[in-house]
Amino acid sequence: MRIIIVGAGLAGLSTAISLANSPTKHDILLLESASALAEIGAGIQLTPVATREFLRWGLGDALLAASALPKSWTLRRGSDGSVLNRVDLSAFKEEYGAPYVVIHRADLHRILHARAVELGVEFGLQSKVVDYGFEEGWLQLENGQRTEADVVIACDGINSSARSLLMRHLGHSDQEWLEATGWAAYRAMAPVNDVKADSSTAEIVREHAGNCWADDQKSLMTYMVQGSRNLNLVFSHRDNVNTSDWTQAELHEEFKRMASDMDPRVRRLVDMVDSPINNWPVFQVKTLPNWVSNSGRFVLIGDAAHAMAFYLSMGVSLAVEDATALASALEQHTSDADSITLSTAVKKFEEARKPRVELIRDASLHAGTMLHLPPGRDRVVRDEAALKDGFIPMVEGGLGSRELLVGPNLGYKATIEVVI
Ligand SMILES: Cc1cc2nc3c(=O)[nH]c(=O)nc-3n(C[C@H](O)[C@H](O)[C@H](O)COP(=O)(O)OP(=O)(O)OC[C@H]3O[C@@H](n4cnc5c(N)ncnc54)[C@H](O)[C@@H]3O)c2cc1C
Ligand SMILES: *[C@@H]1O[C@H](CO)[C@@H](O)[C@H](O)[C@H]1NC(C)=O
Ligand SMILES: *[C@@H]1O[C@H](CO)[C@@H](O)[C@H](O)[C@H]1NC(C)=O
Q1: Is the CB of 158 under 6 A from ligand 2?
Q2: DSSP class of residue 292?
Q3: Ligand 3 proximity of 242 Cβ (cutoff 6 Å)
Q4: Are 151 and 218 spatial neighbours (Cβ–Cβ below 8 Å)?
Q5: Which UniProt keywords apply (predicted)?
Q6: How far apart (Å, rounded) are the C-alpha atoms in residues 114 and 58?
Q7: How many A from CA of 205 to the centre of ligand 2?
Q8: Statement: the pTM of the whole predicted model exceeds 0.85
């Protein structure tokens, strides 16, 4: 088939690779609006769901060379840093068949891009898509050029224009499909050498490990990135300040103010920040009625279909699952087109993926709520559960239950089949 993918982010590249690895040979074109392929941003955590697939794609060596493998994840009380729960991540490889890694976003993008090129995927840069023929299978670029395909797969990210156009095409009321979660995150870096040199914080970077201080309406997550040169800090807070006019000095002041009633180690870490601070309001995509068109010639995936709060770090894992599941659905169609029409195949993909992704989206936001509980009964229950049971599965455990414990995506057992 001739397949056009829109958006060369981590979802688009993963989809291109998955399809290029299919038994059926496809003609794949990846269109990207930017004039150069590049990923900005900082570190991302990858669960075994994603790394397992990267290993299958033969990217193990490249991935591991650029990654750090955190040994543990520790959940701490925000006020004094006392340990509520520690998860041994080094056991993940045995348990889930692939490691839990932290990698710089740009490195992962580079590795996936190189493989897609090797597999013969064609790239079109400076190709902003502005319109789609959802049932017929065409798209139109900003310069007016129209291109046809058997299937168009849009992975144009959280602010997807394909999403709004698809919803309008399917007759759903004209509304904003993106919603604020009420949370935001300041992101910054501190030099690991400084953290090491201070006896009160040295422990934080003695080995590769994730730490999270859960506090009243805020939390701080840290892990090392960039060849262990920097400690990545994600300071989550209520999205009730508009920082767009703030100077860096004001942002640094706010960082210090937030840390002022927390564990002394947090106060020291915040003092060591030497990078610019960015504030990211956290948005999620509401439940969409559909991700696919009636004819099956159009499919929406990745953040465009299901951006979510980052508290379970599942964004990339779900994009990779989407890619694998969609390639598998399309293979069912191409290998037996008489009994499985294109429309049937992509609808099976949607049926398999939507409920799972919506569950994880809700669990991600719930994890944020649990991390940021104010003092009170709920927090006592949370802390007791954390101390007693270690960690409780996030996604497969009863969603919404009081005891549901936070632990960055750590409860996720990959028992729900990716393939359909
Ligand atoms: C603060 C923060 C922390 C996060 N931490 C983690 C983490 O630890 N682990 C994790 O797994 N996930 C994390 N995520 C989520 C993760 O970043 C996303 O889920 C993932 O990168 C989504 O990839 P995507 O390809 O769907 O979208 P994007 O990466 O946004 O890619 C979309 C691409 O489409 C292009 N595009 C857009 N419109 C058009 C158009 N009209 N025509 C052509 N091209 C177009 C864009 O230029 C872009 O290249 C985090 C997110 C945030 C905000
Ligand atoms: C999406 O749009 C919002 C609001 O306009 C903006 O703040 C945010 O940076 C955009 N995100 C991306 C990834 O482009
Ligand atoms: C934040 O403030 C800027 C500048 O004052 C303004 O342009 C922007 O719309 C505001 N954003 C929100 C979400 O209110």
Answers
A1: yes
A2: B
A3: yes
A4: no
A5: FAD, Flavoprotein, Monooxygenase, Oxidoreductase, Signal
A6: 12
A7: 32
A8: yes
For the stretch 297-355, pLDDT in tens is 999 999 999 999 998 888 998 999 999 999 999 999 999 999 999 999 999 999 989 98
* DSSP run (H or E) holding 417: none
Output the CA–CA distances (angstroms, integers) from residue 376 to 212, 216, 242, 261, 365, in the order listed: 20, 10, 29, 18, 20
- What does the pLDDT average to over 84-91? 81
State the amino acid at position 150 in one-letter form.
D
Pocket test for ligand 2, best of 39, 40, 44, 159 (most atoms within 8 A of CB): 159
Distance CA 57, CA 30 (A): 18
> Which of 325, 331, 334, 277 has the alpha carbon at shortest distance from 305?
325
**What single DSSP character describes residue 3?**
E
Q: Say if CB 264 and CB 221 are below 8 A apart.
A: no
Ligand of minimum distance to the alpha carbon of 34: 1
Question: Which has the closest alpha carbon to 100: 72, 76, 62?
Answer: 72
CA quadruple 204, 248, 240, 360: dihedral sign = negative
What CA–CA distance (Å, rounded) separates 215 from 379?
Answer: 10
Ligand 2 atom 3, closest CA: 159
Instruction: Determine how many CB atoms are found less than 10 A away from the CB of residue 54.
Output: 25
Of 409, 417, 289, nearest to 354 by C-alpha is: 289
Could you say which DSSP state residue 143 is in?
T
CA angle 218, 371, 180 (to 5 degrees): 70
Q: Is 159 in the pocket of ligand 2 (CB under 6 A)?
A: yes
Q: Is 245 touching ligand 3 by the criterion CB < 6 Å?
A: yes
Q: Is the CB–ligand 3 distance for residue 415 below 6 Å?
A: no
> Cα of 157 to ligand 1 centre, how many Å?
5
Pocket, ligand 1, Cβ cutoff 6 A: 6-12, 31-34, 44-45, 128-129, 155-158, 161, 185, 280, 302-304, 310, 313-317, 319
Contacts 24+ apart (CB under 8 A), 377-381: 378/402
Measured CA to CA, the distance from residue 13 to residue 29 in angstroms comes to 11
Render pLDDT for 149-196 as a digit per residue (tens, 0 to 9): 999 999 999 999 999 999 999 999 878 999 999 999 999 999 999 999
Q: Which ligand is nearest to the CA of 246?
A: 3
* In the chain, where the domains are located: 2-178+284-416
Encoded tokens for 294: 């009636």
The residue contributing the CA closest to ligand 2 atom 6 is 159
CATH number assigned to the domain covering 2-178+284-416: 3.50.50.60
